[in-house]
Every structure is written in structure tokens, then in C-alpha cells.
Amino acid sequence: MTGSCCPQYSRLTLPLINASSASLLVRWPGGPLRGIAQLPASKSESNRALIIQALAGGGELENLSDANDTQLMQRLLADQQAAVFDAEDAGTVMRFLTAYLAVMGRPAQLVGTARMYQRPIGVLVDALRQLGASIEYVGEEGYPPLKLNGWAPALSSDEPDELTVRGDISSQYISALLMIGPVLPAGLRLWLTGKVGSRPYIRMTQSLMQHFGATCRDLGTVLEVRPGAYQPADYTIESDWSAASYWYAMVALGPAGSTIILPGLREQSWQGDQAIVGIMDQLGVATEFFPDGVQLTQKLPAAAVEQDFSDCPDLAQTVAVVAAALGVPVVMTGLESLRIKETDRILALQTELAKFGGSMTEEGEERFVVRSADFQVSGQTVETYHDHRMAMAFAPLALRGPLTVQAPEVVRKSYPRFWKELERAGFAIENQ
Ligand SMILES: O=C(O)C1=C[C@@H](OP(=O)(O)O)[C@@H](O)[C@H](O)C1
Ligand SMILES: C=C(OP(=O)(O)O)C(=O)O
User: Where does the chain bind phosphoenolpyruvate (predicted)?
Assistant: First the structure.
């Protein structure tokens, strides 16, 4: 891969950032942003690969993510004695592990953070009960925590288990069910109803399952999995495109001439958040692919942008902040799932953008418009609401002025090295 690497990248003595510091003051010293940024590996690929590896009974996984969500999944899967599984704030861990433990017939309790108890799981529990799982709600009906009491599948038949599953709440239920499909006696057929969000995550699940020897068919509203054991296989996890989006934001908001190299991203990706390439092409960032990564360079943004986030909900915060800071009006649709993620991301965006002179208003059903008038970054404090993506989406604003980010340790969920990488790129970061 060609491209120039900034001198800061080789600076090895980084000031210590206290991970549990109440807040960080982030400043940009001036001049273009240039360098190579290290991304985490995809937590979505990692967490699927770990579940499938456990069901396959082997295979080497290279470049597993250092995200807390992945480290947690790995620890919980490795613990053969555990009776209580704490999924913390990790949606994939809660949903994928529920299906895995259910089909393994492991009696278990699944617990998590207070926020996890507000994130619905009824669609998955109903489906697993139909397949033969005995699952109780410990608290509120339809939400974690859960108690799994065992697995008693219906008498075997030659016909696959057939379920109808809503696709408009979270695709993670569908991925969780698909992954256990090959170990069901006659496989699985899912009929999807409603508007199916986060589709690329379902396709990622199918691709990884196929990599491990499963036979899947995707007929749009019908998804089929044939019975038959997974085969152990090796897989190297790609870098995380959702994490890459924050570097796109920095190149878009940086001084003229800003450019960043991101290793480990593939042109043929299973991650739907690769959509950031096309979105940011309109918001002032050109992407050049190399065999082992990409180089981002600044360009002129479009005058206005319209974007449906149904396939890539995790990019919504990045894009909203960039659009507001650039003063490019953006019409955003497909944001239905944002209210039930780590926080109510729509409310959080509205509240925090307003501090800078930005707005995100609902104009029509499920249609939001981001605008700004005299957007200024001048020492404001950003609240992060226990949401890693709030911290990382707003951090690039530091290129436009000093910024304080509350509870910066939230980034550990998906990108523990985030603040270190910002320092490497030349940001001045101080504990507050
Ligand atoms: O399957 C996955 O790895 C994910 C699916 C998406 O969730 P929803 O399907 O709930 O939208 C996404 O927001 C999340 O960060 C990761
Ligand atoms: C929504 C997210 O994760 P999860 O649903 O897995 O907690 C995310 O990483 O933005």
C-alpha cells in the first residue's frame, strides 16, 4: 500500500490516558490531519465467528476484535461451568448467547446492564420457545434478564422447523436463530415479516455460516438453513468499518489536505457499514482502495444529502455530526432501531447537536433532517449516555475547536484504542 505516513505515528511515548477519567479535553493543534490509524477488528464478524466456532468445535480465528463486546463473548463461551452469563451492554452477546445456550441445553441465567433490560428480546425468546427452549423472564416480560431451563425439541421430523419472525426490531434475533439452524435436526426455515432492518448483518451471518460449511438459502422473506454439522475452518476477521467511519468524519472535518490511511479494510466486505464509502463521498471524503486497506482524502462535499440508514444504523450518528458541522443539510430515514440501542440515539443526537448550533428534526414519519446555523465548537461538553458511538461520533468535532467528552471509557465497547489512536494522529488529549 502506498501513501504517506505522518511523523506522529512513530511517536511511541504516548501520554497516559486514564480510561476511567470523568472526561477528556480533546484539542487539535492545527495543520492537516495525516497518518495511519489502527482500527479494531469487526466486533460483528468476531462475535459471529466465536459462536460458530463453538458450534463447529474448532477452527483458528485470526485478528479477533479487542472490543469489550468480543472479549466478553470469548470469556463467556470459554467458561464451561458458568451458570450466570453477564452480557453487560453487548446486544450481540445477549442475543447470540441466548440462542447458543438454549440449543446446547445449558441451564443459565443471562443478565446485563440496566440499559440491556430496556432492550427487547421477546421476538427471539418466542422463537426459541417454539423450537423447544424453556425460557423464563426474570423481570419484565419481553426483556432480559432471562433464565434458561433446558431444551426439549419437538419429536424429530424430516421437515425443517418453521418460524415466523419479525424483522423490524433487531436483525440480531434472526442472526442468532440462523446460527443455531445447522444443529437443529431438520434445519430451519424463517419467514420474515415487517420491514427487515440491518439486512447486511443477516447476510454477514449467512456468509460466515457458509464459510464454516453450513448450507443457507436467502430467498428474501424466507431464509433457510439445512441441517448438518459446521466444519471447523480458519477465518481472518476484517477491520471494523463502523469504527472506520470516525476517521472518515475526521478527514471530512479536518483542515484542507487532511488524509488518513486505514489498514485491514477490504474492498469485498461482509460488513454493511462499508456503505460509509458512498455516504462520505457525498460528505467530502474520497476513498482509494489498496490491497491491504484504504486511503481517505478530503474533497468538496455535495450541497445536500439524503440517506436511508435501514441497512447501516450504526453510521447514523457519524453522519449526523459531520453533516451538521459542515452545514450540509441531510435527510435521514431508516432510523427506527436507533431508539433501542445503547441509548435512545435520536434523543441523544438532538440534545448534543443543539449545544453546537445543530438540529435534527422529525419532518414527516420516520424522516429526520439535520441542519445547522452557525455551528461552532468552542469548549462544549458532550454527554455520551453510555453509548460508545456518541463519544466517537462527536470526537471529530475537536478538529473544529476544543471539546470535552464525558465518560470517554465508553469506547471500550467496540474500539478500546480509540483515544490512543487520536493521540497518535496528533490530537492533544487531557484528563479532566
Ligand atoms: O448483528 C450485529 O452484529 C449488529 C446488528 C445491528 O443491530 P440491529 O440488528 O439491532 O439493528 C447493529 O446495530 C449492531 O451494532 C451490530
Ligand atoms: C448497537 C450496537 O451494538 P449492540 O446492539 O450489539 O449492543 C452498536 O455497536 O452500535
Answer: 43, 91, 119, 172, 345, 389, 413
